[in-house]
């Protein structure tokens, strides 16, 4: 099956829509991480036991990751049945609404234990939204991209994610600098209220984007699967396992973004909230430039070597970064934070959208990416909670957390080494290594 030519300009439009949409989506997702580390322990949990309050707050951050595999099952199914565009619009609206509602929640002092319950419910909705966002945006950009530049164009989804994280951090810097009373009463709500713009902007950006030629050709000729999950598990189960293992590399991001922030601003280290937020901001700024550069390199030398640099390098660099925090030296922390997250981790982060997506055929690509990544991301999300426990009663055993993070980088390395190189394979032939013949009753024509 040959894929019809992509209309002129459509790859750039798809990449732009993916970048802006992901930035807006993950702005919402990451402001929660900053709030979970800095604000929520005092607003939604028992202040009389700060250590437990922090642990429970970080656990709510992980709740969204637990919801993501469930969301991936549904959104992956409909994305491979109905198309990439519909899912991209739906996920942005859901994220915008759920995040806005977090900003409207009553506190523990106002409604007691109902407050954290409502918080968890909104966080679950965020997780369901995030489950479909990256997979649909990645599929859209990959299937629109020229075959020899799939790595570059698909990396815009992750550049957008980093852009959203940068925006979330920059918004929280002045918020964290507010007087304590104002911060805990109304200040923390402002970044969440701003997310209502996500629903409006996301709809305007994505509603005019064309469906991908690969999906339309699949639907018009062979038809779309009635049960994409069944086809996925029969024909691509090994690649799903590889993606699950590879997605564990996201633990580097969650430990860096949430646990390290909590540790650095704790009494045992004593760095200011604003200064540590600047570490994340500058690291994300560097990542915005590094991600497309790593992705372009993968178009030339292959996905696997670039991905391995990011996964293995991150395991080493997290030791150095967390050690730098323990020294209390802010210049050293800033430098190693930028190198760890902005440069080294970006190698894996910039390549996985194309690397994972190229493992699957068009008929199950969105399902394969969504389910595989979200199961791995679920573990990565709760890595923050495990790290808080591993760090001991005082929360300062950084070496144990660094070793834990490095251990989570081993499965991604194994997954990359065992995967086939896909950078040179034509788009219409991706996923053909596995059996693609299906029984007639399992497909329907669009």
UniProtKB/TrEMBL annotation:
CDD domains, sorted: MFS_ShiA_like
Claim: Cell inner membrane is one of the keywords in the record: no
One GO MF annotation is:
transmembrane transporter activity
Q: Which superkingdom is the protein from?
A: Bacteria
Where in the cell?
Cell membrane
**InterPro entries recorded:** MFS_dom, MFS_sugar_transport-like, MFS_trans_sf
Q: Where is this region: Disordered?
A: 427-446
Question: Which keywords does this chain's UniProt record carry?
Answer: Cell membrane, Membrane, Transmembrane, Transmembrane helix, Transport
Kindly give the PROSITE patterns that the UniProt entry links to this protein. Answer: MFS
Please tell me where this protein is predominantly located: membrane
Where does the Major facilitator superfamily (MFS) profile domain lie?
14-424
Gene Ontology cellular component list = plasma membrane
Q: Keyword check for Heme, yes or no.
A: no
**TM spans (from-to):** 55-75, 87-108, 152-176, 188-205, 243-264, 276-294, 306-324, 330-348, 369-392, 398-419
Q: Which Pfam families match?
A: Sugar_tr
Membrane topology is: Multi-pass membrane protein
PANTHER family found in the cross-reference section: SHIKIMATE TRANSPORTER (PTHR43045)
* Protein name, entry field: MFS transporter
- Please give the organism: Streptomyces regalis
